[in-house]
Design brief:
The complex is a heterodimer of chains A (106) and B (209).
Chain A: H1 3-19, H2 33-42, H3 50-66, H4 75-105
Chain B: E1 2-6, H1 8-11, E2 21-26, E3 38-42, H2 43-52, H3 55-63, E4 65-69, H4 75-79, H5 88-108, H6 113-135, H7 158-172, H8 181-205
Parallel strand pairs in B: 2-3
Antiparallel strand pairs in B: 1-2, 1-4
Helix pairs in contact in B: 5-6, 5-8, 6-7, 6-8, 7-8
Classes of the chains: A mainly alpha (106), B alpha+beta (209).
Chain lengths: 106, 209
């Protein structure tokens, strides 16, 4: 599949993972550094928290891949894509944990 | 090492909060260039983009302005014109698909609203840019290319267009007020109309398709 579509789908999955959690003051609008920083600030999340670190890591890898757009799938590209997938899984676990914590506090 | 400016600044399309697009062309990994500030490319990668007639090569060839050259030469200028752009039909079809997936997500009711609207804006812009590059004599790399391709321009309400643009700015620059679901409802018909605009242009790109 096309790299551009892959990256868009990867971003969509990450954003849905975060935005399905109720209770945030604002949704996460994108995976640019500035969008993540705004989301952390508005929702009063420490930028050193694991959730934030994972988001910044995904952002950095996706933007690196975007500079390689339309390139043949290289070993480096494949490795980075797998890293994004693995980080998204970690994010899902982390977010699920936060969600369950929030539910149990109710 | 070569450093160029490109994008809205070079077209004189400046507004408050405009990003400055910078390109660094370097031999190998170079940690001095912040990836949040610079698009980093190797010389080989730029040469290969030129050779394949990639839209980004045409974008740079059309508007990039040299800021610094370690060898006192203008590397991009020395490359000459990129190869003819031969992927117009495939690229337009791709951005049509990107639009369709985003629109489907928007109407599913369970999506990241701003991201999907921003994706629609990006699909529309890239579609129009590829169309202008492949099908007209005036390639348009503007953020507003969809509104600047003459009689084939996208014709939707200003309110809907601004909503899409605001979403893109929120997703990338993170500035501006948050988008509300009611705003989408007010513009849904216009966002839906983008499909027929794309389909009409696709018949020109692929007359047999």
């Amino acid at each position: 599949m096309d790299d551009f579509i892959n990256r868009t789908d990867a971003q969509r999955r990450v954003l849905l993972t975060v935005n399905r959690v109720p209770g945030f003051a604002e949704e996460l609008c994108g995976l640019s550094r500035k969008a993540i920083e705004r989301w952390l600030s508005v929702n009063r999340i420490d930028s050193r928290a694991e959730l934030a670190t994972i988001l910044f890591q995904i952002s950095s890898k996706l933007f690196f891949l975007s500079n390689k757009s339309q390139e043949q799938v290289t070993e480096e590209y494949r490795t980075l894509s797998l890293e994004v997938e693995s980080l998204t899984l970690r994010l899902r676990e982390r977010v699920s944990g936060s969600f369950l914590d929030a539910q149990s506090r109710k | 090492m070569h450093i160029y400016a490109f994008g809205s600044l070079c077209r004189g399309e400046v507004d408050f909060g405009s990003d400055v697009d910078l390109l660094s062309i370097i031999e190998g990994p170079d940690s001095r260039f912040d990836p949040d500030v610079f698009a980093k490319y190797s010389y080989d990668r730029i040469r290969s983009l030129w050779k394949e007639g990639n839209p980004f090569a045409w974008h740079l060839a059309t508007e990039a302005r040299l800021i610094f050259a370690s060898d006192a030469r203008n590397f991009l200028l020395d490359l000459g014109r990129p190869a003819p752009y031969g992927r117009c039909a495939e690229d337009c079809q791709k951005f049509f698909r990107v639009y369709e997936v985003a629109f489907e997500a928007l109407t599913s009711g369970k999506c990241s609203l701003v991201f999907e609207l921003a994706t629609v804006f990006l699909a529309v812009r890239n579609f129009a840019t590829c169309f202008s590059l492949g099908m007209t004599k005036q390639p348009n790399f503007s953020r507003h290319s969809a509104k600047e391709i003459g009689e084939r321009s996208l014709n939707i309400s200003d309110g809907a267009y601004r909503l899409l643009e605001r979403s893109r700015i929120l997703a990338i620059r993170a500035t501006g007020p948050m988008i509300q679901a009611q705003e989408l409802q007010a513009c849904l018909e216009d966002v839906c109309a983008i499909r027929s605009w794309m389909q009409k242009l696709l018949t020109e790109v692929k007359p047999d398709g």
